[in-house]
Amino acid sequence: MMFYSGFVSVEKVCMKTFRMELAGRELQIEVGKVAKQANGAVMIRYGETTLLCTATASEKPREGIDFFPLSVEFEEKYYSVGKFPGGFNKREGKASENSVLTARVIDRPMRPLFPKDYRNDVTLNNLVLSVDPSCRPELVAMIGTAMATAISDIPFDGPCAMTQVGMINGDLLINPSQSDWDNGDLRLTVASTRDKVIMIEAGANELSDQEMIEAIYKAHDVNQTIIALIDQMVAEVGKAKHDYEHVAIDRQMFEEMKKIVTPKQMEEAVFSDEKQVREENIRRVTERLAEAFADREDYLAVLDSAVYQYQKKTVRKMILKDHRRPDGRALDQIRPLSAEVDLIPRVHGSAMFTRGQTQICNIVTLAPLSEVQRVEGLDANVTNKRYIHQYNFPSYSVGETKPSRGPGRREIGHGALAERALLPVLPTVEDFPYAIRAVSETFESNGSTSMASTCASCMSLMAAGVPIKKMVAGISCGLVTGEDDDDYVLLTDIQGLEDFFGDMDFKVTGTKDGITAIQMDIKIHGLTRTIVEEAIRRTHEARLFIMDNCMSKAIDRPRAELSKYAPKIVQIQIDPSKIGDVVGQRGKTINEIIDRTGAKIDIDESGAVSVSAMDQAAIDEAVRLVEIITMDFEKGQHLTGKVVSIKEFGAFIEFAPGKEGMVHISRIANQRIDRVEDVLTLGDIVEVVCMGKDKMGRMSFSMKSSDLAQ
């Protein structure tokens, strides 16, 4: 159901409001009210979540580049949830990890719909103004971006739309609330054009292939209702698309290149399973063409781009028409695999996974729960991230040299994908009270390092003794398409060249029983259902092959014991009302326990106490002290303590920091004594028994052997 209001005059600018019902809530879009100098802008509201989404392009193309300069931003503002930013300056800082990941999800379906030869800078900006927890701002940004771009004058072959799907108790939810999104069994985002799916991103608790396909196409159907509204918006307020400077290699140049380097010779240059050999062959081809075109400055200016296009056409023709891959593999064949664990000494867990010329080393570190990552976002609470997966991609992994400037958006995205892949199989905090950090170091890269990271991480976790529930593997499937929907070839385990020159990178991770994560990127205007289903089937078969024929031969189950270098952790539960007794005034009691034992103690609001140390004896002593502090003394209990105070009427015995009891002088010895000091000295360690309450209601203790013997 869709409808819109009439024209409203605002500073002589036509303003329109569009509305539709989307998953039981109203979606409202205002055009022409704000940000009128942007090429396209919408103020979009879903529930009470409100964003300003804009699309802006530069007037002229950027010179000296051979790519489309697109930038996508997702700006989280703390005023949107009525909060101050943290830190000294009280101002939002660099983009959060969530902002980066959201921008990437928006970028992936939008980028293929712009002209491939468009060189004007384009920025798609999403400003979060208010957040309603029942309507996720990330989803609203995705829809708003597509709308702002579609109604702008920027060349764009849309529209497209995006929908999110969750799952609670087996039921699919369209555009779930933040709570259902976080706690459900599925977190799926699907982008579609009119006819095809153009992007998939998912995290799942082992959904079957068929369940995932059903969820994808339920989202695809919802996307068509949004596209219908966008079509109406374009018809009513859309601008005519502007012309731009087209970039194309002269056809005559290609013909002359083919005379110098024949198509057969180009096939021989790119046909190699060694990346370095192939790159050396292309370098020689380029030098040969440069010599031949020495007197043609116009050709030399675009020679690198022309050679790239020549390679691309050659590789695509080899695959699509001849079913030949550059490294000679069959279409469904995985590159040579190898795996090993424990290759690095002293770390808590390590593993290396190699697939062809892609090689990842993963290192796992275990720590007390106090080391969890605190994540503050646009929601009501600060959340703790117990499992952290990080991915690094140094320049040497591809034979290049450049300074390291920290992780970029690609590194953050790859780390998040591998993290999503393993989350469903991690043990609960109750079963394994550790914070876990897994770091994937890329030693060598030639395609799909994120999937190699998933495999290496799984093995590293098992080597570290993390009791994961099942083994997880990942693989990528590629695609080369022809002129029509039925003319295509799918490629299992794509290498870099097939990724660069192909049309799709469809990554799927999972156990033997189901899918745990998906990330699909394409360079064309969408996939048919047949291709999606076949790609999911291919990746299912491939990940089973990897687990059975490689990973399980290196390590087939989690180790029963942790590394001797990992901290030992014991978790006990206390009455939450006794937390103050353990902590003490200004932390005095807990700090004394830490000083005495050398153990580290963490307590959460539920009363879960985690005690960690390298030495088991230190843990045992700290646990004993905590248990004594929180116990309620009962008649007949035997305790050992230290004499900390002597009075005329008796002695005070400390059983644990802040936990004392008094032994009356009449119960210190079997015989009558005149002075406490005749038997006890400060610092003595003594055994006592609880005698119950005295006449004044206080707990009474005894050192008499007759009482101790009872």
From TrEMBL:
<keyword id="KW-0963">Cytoplasm</keyword>
<feature type="domain" description="S1 motif">
    <location>
        <begin position="636"/>
        <end position="704"/>
    </location>
</feature>
<dbReference type="InterPro" id="IPR036612">
    <property type="entry name" value="KH_dom_type_1_sf"/>
</dbReference>
<keyword id="KW-0460">Magnesium</keyword>
<dbReference type="InterPro" id="IPR020568">
    <property type="entry name" value="Ribosomal_Su5_D2-typ_SF"/>
</dbReference>
<dbReference type="GO" id="GO:0006396">
    <property type="term" value="P:RNA processing"/>
</dbReference>
<dbReference type="InterPro" id="IPR004087">
    <property type="entry name" value="KH_dom"/>
</dbReference>
<dbReference type="GO" id="GO:0004654">
    <property type="term" value="F:polyribonucleotide nucleotidyltransferase activity"/>
</dbReference>
<dbReference type="GO" id="GO:0000175">
    <property type="term" value="F:3'-5'-RNA exonuclease activity"/>
</dbReference>
<protein>
    <recommendedName>
        <fullName>Polyribonucleotide nucleotidyltransferase</fullName>
        <ecNumber>2.7.7.8</ecNumber>
    </recommendedName>
</protein>
<dbReference type="InterPro" id="IPR015847">
    <property type="entry name" value="ExoRNase_PH_dom2"/>
</dbReference>
<dbReference type="InterPro" id="IPR001247">
    <property type="entry name" value="ExoRNase_PH_dom1"/>
</dbReference>
<comment type="function">
    <text>Involved in mRNA degradation. Catalyzes the phosphorolysis of single-stranded polyribonucleotides processively in the 3'- to 5'-direction.</text>
</comment>
<dbReference type="Pfam" id="PF00013">
    <property type="entry name" value="KH_1"/>
</dbReference>
<keyword id="KW-0694">RNA-binding</keyword>
<dbReference type="InterPro" id="IPR027408">
    <property type="entry name" value="PNPase/RNase_PH_dom_sf"/>
</dbReference>
<dbReference type="InterPro" id="IPR012340">
    <property type="entry name" value="NA-bd_OB-fold"/>
</dbReference>
<feature type="binding site">
    <location>
        <position position="499"/>
    </location>
    <ligand>
        <name>Mg(2+)</name>
    </ligand>
</feature>
<dbReference type="GO" id="GO:0005829">
    <property type="term" value="C:cytosol"/>
</dbReference>
<dbReference type="InterPro" id="IPR003029">
    <property type="entry name" value="S1_domain"/>
</dbReference>
<dbReference type="GO" id="GO:0006402">
    <property type="term" value="P:mRNA catabolic process"/>
</dbReference>
<dbReference type="InterPro" id="IPR012162">
    <property type="entry name" value="PNPase"/>
</dbReference>
<dbReference type="GO" id="GO:0003723">
    <property type="term" value="F:RNA binding"/>
</dbReference>
<dbReference type="InterPro" id="IPR036345">
    <property type="entry name" value="ExoRNase_PH_dom2_sf"/>
</dbReference>
<comment type="similarity">
    <text>Belongs to the polyribonucleotide nucleotidyltransferase family.</text>
</comment>
<keyword id="KW-0548">Nucleotidyltransferase</keyword>
<dbReference type="InterPro" id="IPR036456">
    <property type="entry name" value="PNPase_PH_RNA-bd_sf"/>
</dbReference>
<dbReference type="GO" id="GO:0000287">
    <property type="term" value="F:magnesium ion binding"/>
</dbReference>
<dbReference type="Pfam" id="PF03726">
    <property type="entry name" value="PNPase"/>
</dbReference>
<dbReference type="InterPro" id="IPR004088">
    <property type="entry name" value="KH_dom_type_1"/>
</dbReference>
<dbReference type="Pfam" id="PF00575">
    <property type="entry name" value="S1"/>
</dbReference>
<feature type="binding site">
    <location>
        <position position="505"/>
    </location>
    <ligand>
        <name>Mg(2+)</name>
    </ligand>
</feature>
<keyword id="KW-0479">Metal-binding</keyword>
<dbReference type="InterPro" id="IPR015848">
    <property type="entry name" value="PNPase_PH_RNA-bd_bac/org-type"/>
</dbReference>
<keyword id="KW-0808">Transferase</keyword>
<dbReference type="Pfam" id="PF03725">
    <property type="entry name" value="RNase_PH_C"/>
</dbReference>
<dbReference type="Pfam" id="PF01138">
    <property type="entry name" value="RNase_PH"/>
</dbReference>
